[in-house]
Design goal:
Layout (H helix, E strand, L loop, with lengths): L36 H63 L15 E5 L5 E6 L14 H10 L11 H14 L9 H10 L6 H17 L2 H11 L9 H9 L8 H10 L3 H4 L5 H7 L1
Antiparallel strand pairs: 1-2
Helix pairs in contact: 2-8, 4-5, 4-6
Length: 290
């Protein structure tokens, strides 16, 4: 049936006369005979030859990057841990010294010792008798340059800080280190008032911490002008004069509301060392300080 339809079956038999060399009928394929295999195999061989040279530096870079990141992460972690422990330590120190003070709700500004003023028949002051040497004056009674003189010489950032001035403390530390001694103090007017009201003149780290705690309490309870008024009426000016009114009467023979600008500057300069700079004892030093 195959012949009737005209189909020809494939015949792989080669006549004997044409078979001269067996190599002519070698049907095995070489690498070059396969389509595209030569290039692919060559590329694969090249890739496998180059692979170790490429991957080795990458692994080294990855390892070095991981080492750097691990060191940085360790330093950052250690810094955070040290910072937390420092905060805990400072908080514990403050809590301990705060426990040595009276309870905050029981704190109150002590009353000023009474003063007796002896007046003439025309109302003029003849003498003051008492521990303070003068009456309490309101800040509104004083000329504006008088309280400003104290702010300028004792605490220029008085209206900016919250009772404790970190900038002033750092500046004082820098000045003391440069001059190799206690050349400047870092206490604010509020801290000085807290020391005068509640603490002793003792110089110690414990007292400074308590002073700072009390300064924060004063700033919370009173306004800036009220704190400045309390300060002007309590600070010591030498020669037994407590308060700016007593100092003006003692040194200039006039009330504080009548002092001049130069006299206000002299009063402001007395606070640093009232016994040494008192005008009735050392007028040239008081004038130089003013």
């Amino acid at each position: 049936m195959a012949k009737g339809r005209g189909r020809m079956e494939p015949n792989f038999d080669v006549p004997e006369g044409r078979v001269r060399d067996r190599g002519e009928l070698d049907l095995r394929l070489s690498r070059e005979d396969r389509a595209g295999t030569g290039e692919r195999v060559g590329k694969r061989a090249d890739d496998t030859a180059r692979a170790p040279a490429k991957t080795a530096p990458r692994r080294t870079q990855k390892k070095s990057g991981r080492r750097r990141r691990s060191w940085l992460s360790r330093i950052a972690y250690g810094s955070v841990v040290l910072g937390l422990w420092a905060v805990i330590g400072v908080a514990g120190l403050i809590a301990y010294h705060a426990s040595q003070l009276p309870p905050i709700d029981q704190l109150a500004v002590p009353k000023r010792p009474p003063n007796i003023a002896i007046l003439a028949s025309d109302g003029s002051l003849l003498a003051n008798r008492g521990e303070t040497g003068g009456r309490v004056v309101s800040i509104k009674e004083l000329p504006p340059y008088l309280p400003r003189a104290f702010v300028a010489i004792e605490d220029r950032r008085f209206y900016q800080h919250f009772g404790v001035d970190p900038v002033g403390i750092l500046r004082a530390i820098g000045q003391n280190l440069t001059r190799r001694g206690v050349a400047q103090g870092g206490s604010t007017l509020t801290q000085q008032l807290a020391k005068n009201l509640f603490l002793t003149p003792e110089r110690s780290a414990s007292r400074k911490i308590q002073e700072a705690i009390l300064a924060l309490w004063l700033e919370h309870k009173y306004s800036k002008d009220e704190i400045l008024e309390l300060y002007l009426n309590r600070v010591y000016f030498g020669a037994g004069a407590y308060g700016v009114e007593a100092a003006a009467q003692r040194y200039f023979g006039k009330p504080a509301k009548e002092v001049s600008l130069a006299q206000a500057a002299m009063l402001g300069g007395l606070v640093q060392a009232p016994s040494r700079l008192a005008p009735n004892r050392n007028l040239p030093a008081a004038q130089a300080r003013a």
